[in-house]
Amino acid sequence: MCIFARNEALHLPRCIAALDAASGGLDYRAHILVNGCDDDTAAVAAVLAAADTRITVHELPVGDKAHAWNEYVFRIARKAATPAKTHVFLDGDIRPGRGAVAALFRAIDEAPEAYGAAALPASGRSRHFWVAQLRRNHYLSGNLYALSEKALCGFRQRKLRLPFGAKGEDGIIAYLLLTDFAGGSDDRHRDRIVVAEDASFEFDPLMFNARDIAIYRRRLRRYSERHFQKSILYRRLKRQGAGAMPENIYDIYTDETLNGLYPRPDPVNFWFDAATLRRLKRGRRRARPAPI
């Protein structure tokens, strides 16, 4: 298992506590990727690992989920003494449901053509819409999903790393699987991702308080950047194929690609979109991670 933990000191113990029930008796090894934290996540993860030999903690200096995913796929999982047949990816702020991990394993085992299996949300105000989208489009939710070792080998053989700084890494992964790693416009390989109907996850809903309002604002800013990223990145990959995947997501933001973008007109997203476009047009760049 690969558990992404950035500033999850509060939620991580509950996530880990749910793993045994979620695994349904399956043997597992859990790798906690503590990435770019400024809270006590690293200390909490160390305590959890000291209490359970199945847990290994990896501290990454860069707070970037796409970079952490690359680290797991291209370094951590690759160097494992015994390669796993199936890899489960989950966020440290969710709680996998009882039997969820076992259900993801079964879903891939029972679908020989599948590279991945999606779990379904069991909480959240928009969960019914979210579930319908996952079922209809064979998408993955970054909160909890599984990939086969064959899928990881496909990324490695093609040297397909997720762009540093990318938002919505689950969408990029799903797109690559649905195009059979080729990119382009043919994303009809729906048998590459199956929905594990018995795999669910829960998370704490946001409340009306100062802390959660700040979290919601950060989330909307992230969603805004993801909206523009998708518009530019997928257009590029559909035209040029998976080989056009950038190393750094900010490489796709040029005067040419940004000039035709405008804020969405709805009152919730408009102001965040406008601020995001101003920032991107100023040409900010983020530091790149060291090569793997």
Characterization of the model:
The chain is an alpha/beta fold and 292 residues long. It folds into two domains: 2-203, Spore Coat Polysaccharide Biosynthesis Protein SpsA, Chain A (Alpha-Beta Complex), CATH 3.90.550.10; 210-281, no CATH class. Helix content is 41%, strand content 16%. The chain contains eleven helices and eight strands. Helix 3 (41-51) links the parallel strand 2 and strand 3. Helix 9 (210-240) crosses helix 11.
Layout of SSEs?
Blueprint: E1 2-5, H1 12-17, H2 19-23, E2 30-35, H3 41-51, E3 55-60, H4 65-76, E4 86-91, E5 94-96, H5 100-109, E6 116-121, H6 127-137, E7 144-148, H7 149-157, H8 169-178, E8 193-203, H9 210-240, H10 255-258, H11 270-281
Parallel strand pairs: 1-2, 1-4, 2-3, 6-8
Antiparallel strand pairs: 4-7, 5-8, 6-7
Q: If helices are DSSP runs of H or I spanning 4 or more residues, what is the number of helices? A: 11
Give the overall average pLDDT. Answer: 93
Total number of beta strands: 8
First-to-last CA distance:
20 Å
Radius of gyration: 19 Å
User: What order do the SSEs take from the amino end to the carboxyl end, as H and E?
Assistant: EHHEHEHEEHEHEHHEHHH
CATH architecture group name of the largest domain: Alpha-Beta Complex
Overall geometric form: globular
Helix residue percentage: 40-55%
Largest sheet: 8 strands, mixed
CATH class identity of the largest domain: Alpha Beta
